[in-house]
Write a sequence for this structure.
């Protein structure tokens, strides 16, 4: 923990972490708020699911595009534009009664304009700390983002169900604008200029490390999405058990990231951390028994173990990407990784849903375990593609250009 205290005392680090967590807080609220609002307005979860799908598609498509724009027009301009458009789309969705296609159009625009704060901040981090601290900073970031997934769904559920879905969406807009303004106006954001990438859009996916990070992120977040569906199916919507069990999963991730963030990252780090996730989720399959009163405790213990590997695995993903691409390509690379995670979340939820209908909650836990096991297998099989960051600078590769000389 002494290393984290030293890290947070570095000028600008604590401020930028707090600002980006606030700016990203609506990400943990938007899906649930849109789902509840559209269901209330239309009376059908099917319509709400279509709107949510449109929003997710927009986010997946926009991730690498808006991230790359930051190297063309600057971080502040892109974040200001996307924040304004996203807030306007959510405002229309909240206040204007529409047909389902209208809600879908608003959801799509909100998804397409989701501010790329995550790509921006992970591009900025290497400019804030020295190379010795960078891996720990990525780990701290991956750990603290669990606060979003612990608090945001609880907050929006309370507001939307007790006060109203319109108020819930307006709350998201307020946090989006204020948090975005805090991050955009932070001095650290103004000091970093991302060079324009000279490579064609999408070429960064040709780098094995970026492709690996995208695939593994897809599998890891697919497992997490399947777990969420499984827990809700096991304990139902009516009580507190589902929320508490998912909170335990996030707390495990938070604890794992803080505990193992200082460990040097070698080529086998990803495989080891994903194995921890796979073991915990596989164990959960055998403790799902809806008639057993002790189920919440055993499932919580299994998910606590699985969670310990989640944030450390994400930290490896961010660090290895940073160390393997040019600085001008980092934002786009993180954008592609984010797109992979969004697709994984959608597929994980869908597969888990079908299995819940077919065989019950145990099927969804099995799907989550399958995603995690496949991720560990991919990491082990492709271990030669992972950089060895032990004793090595995890900062991005500097951008170079020909220098004219007199002959």
């Amino acid at each position: 923990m002494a290393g984290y205290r030293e890290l947070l005392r570095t000028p600008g680090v604590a401020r930028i972490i707090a600002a980006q967590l606030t700016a990203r807080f609506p990400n943990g609220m938007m899906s649930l708020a849109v789902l509840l609002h559209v269901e209330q307005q239309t009376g059908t979860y099917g319509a709400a699911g279509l709107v949510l799908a449109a929003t997710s598609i927009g986010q997946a498509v926009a991730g690498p595009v808006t991230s790359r724009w930051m190297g063309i027009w600057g971080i502040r301009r892109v974040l200001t534009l996307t924040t304004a458009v996203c807030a306007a789309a959510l405002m229309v969705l909240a206040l204007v009664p529409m047909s389902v296609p209208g809600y879908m159009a608003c959801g799509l625009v909100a998804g397409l304009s989701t501010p790329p704060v995550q790509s921006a901040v992970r591009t900025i981090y290497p400019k804030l700390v020295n190379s010795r601290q960078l891996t720990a900073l990525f780990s701290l970031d991956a750990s603290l983002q669990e606060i979003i997934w612990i608090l945001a769904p609880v907050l929006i559920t309370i507001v939307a169900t007790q006060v109203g879905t319109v108020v819930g969406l307006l709350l998201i807009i307020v946090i989006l604008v204020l948090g975005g303004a805090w991050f955009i106006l932070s001095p650290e954001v103004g000091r970093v200029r991302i060079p324009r990438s000279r490579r064609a859009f999408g070429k960064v996916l040709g780098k094995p490390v970026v492709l690996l990070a995208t695939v593994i992120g897809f599998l890891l977040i697919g497992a997490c999405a399947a777990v969420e569906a499984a827990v809700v199916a096991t304990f139902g919507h009516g009580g507190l058990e589902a929320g508490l069990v998912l909170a335990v999963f996030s707390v495990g991730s938070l604890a794992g990231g803080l505990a193992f963030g200082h460990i040097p990252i070698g080529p086998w780090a990803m495989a080891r951390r994903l194995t921890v996730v796979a073991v915990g989720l596989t164990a959960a399959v055998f403790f799902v028994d809806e008639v057993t009163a002790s189920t919440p405790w055993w499932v919580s213990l299994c998910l606590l173990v699985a969670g310990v590997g989640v944030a450390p695995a994400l930290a490896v993903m961010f660090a290895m990407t940073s160390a393997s691409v040019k600085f001008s390509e980092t934002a786009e690379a993180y954008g592609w990784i984010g797109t992979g995670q969004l697709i994984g979340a959608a597929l994980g939820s869908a597969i888990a849903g079908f299995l819940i209908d077919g065989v019950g909650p145990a099927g969804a836990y099995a799907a989550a375990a399958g995603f995690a096991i496949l991720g560990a297998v991919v990491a082990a099989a492709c271990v030669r593609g992972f950089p060895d960051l032990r004793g090595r600078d995890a900062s991005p590769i500097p951008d170079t250009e020909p220098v004219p000389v007199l002959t």
